[in-house]
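Comment thread on ticket #2218

A.B. wrote:
> Attaching the input chain for the structure job we discussed in standup.
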Amino acid sequence: MNKKIILSFTFIFAVIYQLIVIFPIIYNEEDILNNGSEFKFRIRNSRLPVLCGKNYISLDLKTKIKSYEKFYMIDNIFVCVKQNSDGFAHVSSISKDKPIELKDYVDVKYVRSDYKSHIVSFMLPFNRFYFKEVYADEIKNIYKKSIKDSSKKVYALVSIKNGKGLVKDVFIDDVSIMDMIEK
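C.D. wrote:
> Ran it. Output below, let me know if you need it in another format.
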């Protein structure tokens, strides 16, 4: 009888934990994907090895901007994103203050500043593309080949809302990497 009561309470606790902690995280990510602004971020071509996990590829989305404001690694930094004439995202401004009127901004954690040239470098927080493990080998091979080929146009489609961003898909010459593996 005692074991049944303990198991029942454990089960109820697990259900409540999922509803209170995990469900809001999933809901917020779905909201970003469905209602966020979409931007195309260029992925730099590189001859360096591509970092890959079991079910993700790392995207090289480092960027920089000229700014006369001083930034430190411990600062909360907000990066405003706009679309350029090519249809790709670019950083329009960077600030320590949260943008009030703009909704297309990203909260950035790591910043490196060069005070002589006034160049601020940072890594965007959405630097991984996740996929099902079943497709891992194919996606990694396609991505590694395309990132080393400078003639390829490789970019990530990212959805941004309220300072958060999520990678929706990776494209190579305007074709989704997921569509490439299904062919």
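A.B. wrote:
> Thanks. Noting for the ticket: The chain has two domains: 1-35, 36-182.
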